[in-house]
């Protein structure tokens, strides 16, 4: 007698930025646990944690370069990052994208929206008085279906900000 097919697990693509963003993403992944299938997007200048070597990982070109103060100087790099996000999401076919703090959230949010993929943005724990530029863009352009903050007093800084505690 054939066994019933196991339901497929929800697939999440999680951004792995550098520094504190990576730490927050790793903490969030520990909390989410093993009930999900994961793939990852990381910056081409970011380190991949050793426990994820061999996992489904995609790279995105860095475009938020501090040495290029004018928007027009960043545009070509941003467009390349947007194309990489679109291609990665098309290949990996996640059910949802989770972006933790980093600027990768903007091209990822645009690509996810174009492909009809749900997205979540988690603002950095370091942001409790003023929103980051990334969070302002994500909120104003409605690039995330959910925008989480990590401090109760920060919910008013964003359109539909939600606080469920910290990820650390």
Order of helices and strands: EHEEHEHEHEE
- Whole-number radius of gyration? 16 Å
- What number is the mean pLDDT? 87
Main β-sheet: number of strands, strand sense, barrel status? 7 strands, parallel
Percentage beta strand:
15-25%
Oligomer: single chain
Spatial strand order of the main sheet: 3-2-1-4-5-6-7
Shape: globular
Structural class: alpha/beta
**Count of beta strands:** 7
Straight-line N-to-C gap: 47 Å
Helix content: 25-40%
Number of helices: 4
Can you walk me through this structure?
- The chain is of the alpha/beta class and 168 residues long.
- Helix content is 32%, strand content 20%.
- It has helices at residues 20-32, 71-92, 105-115, 133-140; strands spanning 11-16, 37-43, 57-60, 96-100, 118-122, 146-149, 161-163.
- Strands 3-2-1-4-5-6-7 form a seven-stranded parallel sheet, with helices on both faces.
- Helix 2 (71-92) crosses helix 3 (105-115).
- The longest helix is centred in the middle third of the chain and has 22 residues, at 71-92.
- It is globular.
């Amino acid at each position: 007698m054939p066994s019933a097919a196991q339901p497929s697990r929800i697939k999440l693509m999680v951004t792995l930025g550098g520094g504190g963003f990576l730490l927050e993403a790793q903490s969030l992944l520990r909390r989410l646990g093993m009930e999900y299938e994961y793939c990852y997007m990381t910056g081409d200048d970011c380190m991949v944690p050793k426990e994820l070597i061999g996992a489904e990982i995609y790279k995105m070109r860095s475009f938020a370069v501090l040495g290029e103060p004018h928007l027009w100087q960043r545009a070509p790099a941003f467009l390349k990052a947007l194309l990489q996000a679109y291609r990665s999401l098309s290949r990996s076919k996640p059910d949802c994208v989770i972006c933790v703090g980093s600027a990768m959230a903007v091209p990822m949010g645009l690509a996810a929206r174009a492909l009809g993929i749900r997205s979540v943005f988690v603002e950095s724990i370091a942001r409790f008085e003023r929103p980051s530029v990334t969070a302002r863009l994500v909120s104003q352009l409605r690039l995330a279906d959910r925008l989480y903050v990590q401090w109760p007093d920060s919910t008013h800084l964003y359109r539909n900000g939600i606080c469920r505690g910290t990820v650390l």
